[in-house]
Every structure is written in structure tokens, then in C-alpha cells.
Amino acid sequence: METKKIKQAIIDKKDELIALTKDLIRFESISGKEDEISEYIQDFFKEINFYVRSIDKNVLASEKKDNKDARLILNGHMDVVPAENFSWDYPPFDPQIIDEKIYGRGSCDMKGGLASMMFAIKILHGLGIDMGSDILFTATVEEETGGVNGTGKIVGSLNGEMCVIAEPTDLGICIGHKGSNIYEITVKGRSAHGSMPQLGKNAIYYAARMIIALEDFKFSIEDDLLGQPTMNVGKISGGTRVNVVPDRCVFELDRRTIPEETSKSVLDELNRIVNREKANGVEAEIKNIIEMLPVKVSTDEMIVRLLKKSTKDVFGYERDITTMDGCTDARFFINKNIPTVIFGPGKKDCAHVSNEFIEINDLVYASSSFASLITEVVKNNKKN
pLDDT tens across 218-235, in order? Predict the structure, then answer.
């Protein structure tokens, strides 16, 4: 079926796509609290006679039962970050439409992307497109807290040929992202009375020197697409009372990595920076709390070529090849040797902010692109 006809079918039922997006936003699905939205998505696919499985709230849906070897996996996460600590002009879980934008927590990251995928599948099913064993939809939990219980839990049983994740990319074709290593650095000094600071070793002072050294550090490596690594100290605590020289200070560092680095090289570099700022009687212990590897796929991969063609058919021109700084669940699929790209509606800088929104026009283009991609995958499989 021609992409033009599929896109028109989506445009004709745009109100349903909007309603679906708003329904998903209404669920206050903070990481770990995805029960209700999971049930909603399961019911959505049951209504179009798809086979649905739930693995610890993660949803897997396809036309064929027990479909673990799909050619194309469509993936998105159901959870969102909290909204109560932000200043909102509109209720974060009561979506509002203003100036052709839907406002609400998760609208951009990534209820809009989820809705676009789900609606594309529903439209194609209604048009009689046989997706059979070629397509598997997955909606997962807890991506915002690392994804181990979400995509990390289900990917072991999947053997797909390729995958697309509907994270917000402003409808660019994202072929990679940086990794993230989270380190906890504990600085240990020596306590003393606040009136005699010379008798102690102020752990906060030494932590501060280390933090300034980290801020001033200049990276000498760079990836041709992902750019240079970055680091950010985002949390610090220390001291017990103002009149006591603190003997302990702990800060946390978010170190964004690129494929040219290894876990060992990153840790060795961090140790060198920190150790230069120590003094006799001061210790610094570095603990790696989280490690999420960087990923990048070749533009020659089938999923990239198919998505380039599909989006060109929808937009009338080729979409940009991009990368992103933040981490996604793509690493789970790529580590399973399933080539994965990220493509979805929403501005990259709109995620996790107050007054988060998604443009309705982007929902239509995204859903049309996913539908076009699915038909390309099905068509190519029949040729083979």
C-alpha cells in the first residue's frame, strides 16, 4: 500500500491519535508505578485481536502468538519522571491542548512516541496489512531509572533483526548516543573543633578542589558523531554541624562516555584527577554506581536504510542522521546484536521539563513514519 494512502488514513483519524496520546499522559506512571498504563496498553492491543503478553508489567504485542523472532521490534517506555518538583502552568497529568500542542508530563518523553507507534499498528491492522510474525511491539517499565527491569528483562528472550525506539529525536534518525557512568566519590579527612580548623582535614574543602579540577579538565578525545565526553557533578553532601571540621564529604559525578573509551580508561582518568587534589591524611574512594555503555550503529544497517526511505516517503525529503547525549534502552538491544535506531516525535530539550509538550503535527508525521516503516519491513520480507 502506498505511503500516501496510509498517511491520509492517519490524518483522517487524527482525533483518535490525539485522544490516545492524552489517555497515556493521564496515567501518573512514575517509574515503578506503571501497572495501570500497562493494563491500558494490553487492552488496546487485545481490542484489535493481537496476542498480548505481560512480563512484570512489560507489554509485548503482535499478530502472531509468542512472536520472539520478529524482523522489527518497536519499543518505547511507559514510565515518566516525577512532576511535583517543577513549576507547571498546566496540570502535568491532565493534558491540555494549546496552540496545536499537547501539554503534560511524558507528552514528549515518551507518551507521544508510544501513541504514535500504537496508532500506526492499529491503522495498518484496520487497512488489512498482514504484519504476522514480522512485527513485535514492546512497551517497557522503569527506563527512567536504568531499564534493568524493563527492556533489560525482556530482551534476553528476543531475537529480532532490528529495532526502533520512539524516544524524542525531533523526528531525526538517531544512530547512537553517549554512555553514562555514575560515580560516587567519598572524601575522608579528619574532624576537629570548628574553632581550631588547623587541627583537622576539611573533607569539604578537598572535595571542592577535586570538583573544580573536574570542571576544568579538558578532554583530548572526540567521536566523529557523538563529540567529546562530558562530566557533571550533580549531588554533594558533607558535614554534621557548622562548628565541626567535616571528616567526610560525598559527591556524585555523571560521566558521559563515547565508544572510543573503556571503563578502565575512564576510571583511571578520574583517579588521576582526584588524586592530584589530595593531601597527606586525606583519602578519596571512587565507586562506580551505574554503567550504561555508549552505542552507535552504522548508517549501512538495514534499519537505518529502511527508516531513511520510509521517512522520505512521508516527509518528501531525507531526515537528518543524528545522535543524542542522553542514554536510552537501545544499549540493551545492541548488546544483544539487534541493530537499533531511535526515532520519535518531540524536541530533545523538552523532556523532563515543566510545561512539557508534544506538537500534534509531529504525532501525525511520527505515526505515518512508523506505519511506512512497518509496511517496508513486511514488503521486504515477502520479497525474500
Answer: 999 999 999 999 999 999
Burial of 262 by CB count in 10 Å (0-12 exposed, 13-18 middle, 19+ buried)? exposed
pLDDT band at 87 (very low <50, low <70, confident <90, very high): confident
- Which sequence spans correspond to the domains of the chain? 3-177+295-383, 179-292
User: Could you give the CA distance from residue 262 to residue 221 in angstroms, rounded to a whole number?
Assistant: 12
How far, in Å, CA of 271 to CA of 268, rounded?
Answer: 5
pLDDT at 107: 98
State the Cα–Cα distance between residues 238 and 50, nearest whole angstrom: 54
- Under a CB-based contact definition with an 8 Å cutoff, are residues 256 and 180 in contact? yes
Of 16-30, 164-178, 276-290, the least confident: 276-290
- Does pLDDT of 384 surpass 70? no
How far is 248 from 189, CA to CA, in rounded Å?
6
What is residue 382's predicted lDDT score, i.e. its pLDDT?
62
In 3D space, the residue among 204, 279, 199, 209 whose CA is nearest the CA of residue 242 turns out to be 204
Q: Are the CB atoms for 55 and 322 separated by under 8 Å?
A: no
Which CATH superfamily does the domain covering 3-177+295-383 fall into? Zn peptidases (3.40.630.10)
In CATH, which of 3.30.870.10, 2.60.120.200, 3.40.50.1970, 3.30.70.360 is domain 179-292? Answer: 3.30.70.360
